[in-house]
Amino acid sequence: MHDLAERHDIAPAAGAAAAADAGLWRRLARNAFPFITVGALWEIVAHLGLFPAQFFPPLEAIAAVFVRLTLNGVLPHHAFDTLVRLSAGFALAALIGVALGVLMGRTRRAEDILLPLVSIGAPLPGLAYAPLFLLWFGPGNVPAVLLVGFVSAFPIIFNSWTGVKAVKDIWVRAAQAMGADDRRLFRHVILPGALPYILTGLRLGLAQAWRILVAVEMLAAVPWGLGWLIFGAQEFLNTDVMLAGIAVIALIGLALEKLVFEPLERFTVVRWGMMAS
Amino acid sequence: MTAERIRSLRRGAITLMVVAAIYQAVARSGHFAPALMPPLGTIARTLVGMLLDGTMLGHAGATLYRVLCGFGLAVAVGLPLGVLMGRSRPVEHFVLPLASALMPIPSLAWIPVFILWFGLGNTVTILIVFYAALFPMLLNTWSGVRSVNPIWLRAAGAMGANERALFWKVIIPGASPFIIAGLRQSFLRSWIAVIGAEMLAASGWGLGWVIFDAKEYLDADVMLAALVVIGAIGFVTERLVFGSIERATIYRWGMARTPKG
């Protein structure tokens, strides 16, 4: 949008605004078109009666369930519990992951000791641990949060480690030559230098946490949570409830991307000139 | 350099031994039931026993079959569609919004829906793997095709390359680092998805199923043995398969620098 307006700066301001406006509408229409097409196809199939309506509900039925469950507070409660679990597990992973990763990047000894453990644990699909965690900690919130934290810690550790190692030697030596002590070196050189990587790690970790949390909720038999909502609805063949739950999951996933990470990246990394916007 | 490397290796080996010893000590101490925390010897015996009588191979075979079907399907759809998206704007405008809306939904969230639609069994697992693997493949191919240097296209065009030659000789090799990154990422996602899908939707065979089933009987040794197999398969595909694909293609073509060491 921005560069569109700039290119038209010879034209009168009102004309530029109108052109930008038209561009906005065209873009909106372009983005809406695929959804309308797919929605229409879905409606046609649902109303033709090829499949029982219970298994393939029309969109208006899903929307009605969505509105009903939102108004009586069931859907928000499930979504809230899922988000709390996600935040708790991710916070755990972020704290431990960044600390371990930075430690590994700073001292050779920590790297030698931790790297074998991390490289053995990382490639295993996190969900494979789920039954083990359930066995050890019993069903409920504890294994769910621990598992999410455990799984999302690996990309955070790896990226923090790489980031600290990627800080240019010249910056460190320059800061030392100018008399920076260890603490200031860390706060003003190493941390900002490693930040692009750490943020990437956090982003990957959160994405990973999000991908498995729903399945963990299905396995861990927690009383509330979107995964449990979907899984429980299967028992009663409530496809409309399941699809409404999936819609909420999609909205949360999109919101995580658009509201958490893109702004964070703009405010820190891009602003400090570490990465092109 | 070599002395340092030897020291690193020694320290790594010591770490692993210390961790194994601590685990063994805790398992032997009797604070936890041996069913929940079996000693290493029991795990090894279970693993060898299951390998020898063929059950573990059957489980691994079932899992690999599902992964390869789903992953192959994802490549068969994602690769051409990604190239098409990169080459034609209408396709890009149609597919991209749908992909960005579907991508944030974890593939495993679809399991209950797919079970209702297709029943328990291989179809559900394969479709879940397909869903998980499709988007990394699609988006990486798309970015790869878009990142092909336009000068190469114009140069090839000026030298009289037709559309087909342009495609096979310029676009595909040019996009290959992205495509291979996409394959790798897709396989990783497939591998995660198949374990989860098998836990929730498979019946009888599969590494994910065996872990989940062992929980019912408190067979922690079977779970840990299956974890070892899962880790080994993941390691082999990551290092050997994708590593050699990368060496044979993009490093040889000079598209990426060979990693040091």
Count of domains of chain B: 2
Q: What fraction of residues of chain B sit in β-strands?
A: under 5%
Q: How is the biggest beta sheet of chain A arranged? A: none
> Which class best fits the helix and strand makeup of chain A?
mainly alpha
Q: Compute the number of strand runs of chain A.
A: 0
CATH fold topology of the largest domain in chain B: MetI-like fold
Mean pLDDT of chain A: 83
The proportion of residues forming helix of chain A, as a percent range, comes to over 70%
Average pLDDT level of chain B: 85
**CATH fourth-tier homologous superfamily of the largest domain in chain B:** MetI-like
Helix fraction of chain B, binned, reads over 70%
CATH top level of the largest domain in chain A is Mainly Alpha
Radius of gyration of chain A, Cα only, in angstroms? 24 Å
Strand/helix succession of chain A: HHHHHHHHHHH
Account of the protein in words:
The complex is a heterodimer of chains A (277) and B (261). Chain A has eleven helices and no strands. Chain A has 277 residues and is mainly α. Chain A has two domains: 2-50; 62-270, MetI-like (MetI-like fold). Chain A starts with a helix and ends in a 7-residue tail after the last helix. Chain B has helices at 2-29, 40-52, 55-87, 89-102, 111-118, 122-146, 150-158, 163-201, 207-216, 220-251. The model of chain B has no long low-confidence stretch (mean pLDDT 85).
Structure in a nutshell:
The complex is a heterodimer of chains A (277) and B (261). Helix content of chain A is 82%, strand content 0%.
